[in-house]
């Protein structure tokens, strides 16, 4: 079998080609370059150009080197119809995402941001503590990553809400679903965590109207976005932080990455910015998954993680 591999030149995944080749010694592996039209049975990719996949209907599978598939789905008709697009299931990302979100929630709940500002001013002033019964955390998206986040927060005894497109039932989580359930979910959440896939239906979901529905409690609501920059209407968030209706935010993803040095987010002390590092594919697990799934498909089997191109994940 023949496997072609591609990641952008700037990606940290560039070095994974040799690991994929070692994990599939029975395969003929090559790094795809522009102009390469030779036959391939499988494509292992991250942010591939349209020219790599256009017309390749003979592929048995396209394996994405991460869980997020919004970038590859933007290729539209360049993605060969009928060829399974397979994403990584977790790939070591769920525990990282749970760590990141729990850190952000605890930082706001325990008022560590305020204490850091006090420290910079050499100021000693205990602040009134928050109480967990008034500090419900809402998770937008209850896939593998969202469920792991919910579990981590429940361990710290935070009350947790969850919203998904279709109804789910999870222990320790008050679950909401569909358009009808979104308003109730937002009104019952002091902190909102976005871990949704980016689709036409979810783009811009963190907008002024929705953010104003959050439970602001005594100190304001808080926003955590670890999904995609397209979920957030950035100007709306800035305006609401400016008026105090949103207390602050932790953002790991942005409409344009890397974020321009002149972006107003950099000047807003109530926004914590990280450079899209909340969860990265762990290469050992990712390579194990992809090589294993290629062997299953090659043997005529069925694999998990196949993307529904209609719903976008």
Please report the distance between the alpha carbons of the first and last residues. Answer: 27 Å
> Which structural class do the helices and strands define?
alpha/beta
Order of helices and strands: EHEEHEHEHHEHEEHEHEHEEH
Which superfamily, in CATH terms, is the homologous superfamily of the largest domain? NAD(P)-binding Rossmann-like Domain
Please state the average pLDDT score.
95
Strand content: 15-25%
Number of domains: 2
Residue runs with pLDDT of under 50 for 5 or more positions: none
- Report the CATH architecture of the largest domain: 3-Layer(aba) Sandwich
Main sheet properties: 7 strands, parallel
Q: What is the rounded Rg?
A: 21 Å
**Number of DSSP E strands:** 12
The CATH topology of the largest domain turns out to be Rossmann fold
**Largest sheet strand order:** 8-7-6-9-10-11-12
Shape verdict: elongated
């Amino acid at each position: 079998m023949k496997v072609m591999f591609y990641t952008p030149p700037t990606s940290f995944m560039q070095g994974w080609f040799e690991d994929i080749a070692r994990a599939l010694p029975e395969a003929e592996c090559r790094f795809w370059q522009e102009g390469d039209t030779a036959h391939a049975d499988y494509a292992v990719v991250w942010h591939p150009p349209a020219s790599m996949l256009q017309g390749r209907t003979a592929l048995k599978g396209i394996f994405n080197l991460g869980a997020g598939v919004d970038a590859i789905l933007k290729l539209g008709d360049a993605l060969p119809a009928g060829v399974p697009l397979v994403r990584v299931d977790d790939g070591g990302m769920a525990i990282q995402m749970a760590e990141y979100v729990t850190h952000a929630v605890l930082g706001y709940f325990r008022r560590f941001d305020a204490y850091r500002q006090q420290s910079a001013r050499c100021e000693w002033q205990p602040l009134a503590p928050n109480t967990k019964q008034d500090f419900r955390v809402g998770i937008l998206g209850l896939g593998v990553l969202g469920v792991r986040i919910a579990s981590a927060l429940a361990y710290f005894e935070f009350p947790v809400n969850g919203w998904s497109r279709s109804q789910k039932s999870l222990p320790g989580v008050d679950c909401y679903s569909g358009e009808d359930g979104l308003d109730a979910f937002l009104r019952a959440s002091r902190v909102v965590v976005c871990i949704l896939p980016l689709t036409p239906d979810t783009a811009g979901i963190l907008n002024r109207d929705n953010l104003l529905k959050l439970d602001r409690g005594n100190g304001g609501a808080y926003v955590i976005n670890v999904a995609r920059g397209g979920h957030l209407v950035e100007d709306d968030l800035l305006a609401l932080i400016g008026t105090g209706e949103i207390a602050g935010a932790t953002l790991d993803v942005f409409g344009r990455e890397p974020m321009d040095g002149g972006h107003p987010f950099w000047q807003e002390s109530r926004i914590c910015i990280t450079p899209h590092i909340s969860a990265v594919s762990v290469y050992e697990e990712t390579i194990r998954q992809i090589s294993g799934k290629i062997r299953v498909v090659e043997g005529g089997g069925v694999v998990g993680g196949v993307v529904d191109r209609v719903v976008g994940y």
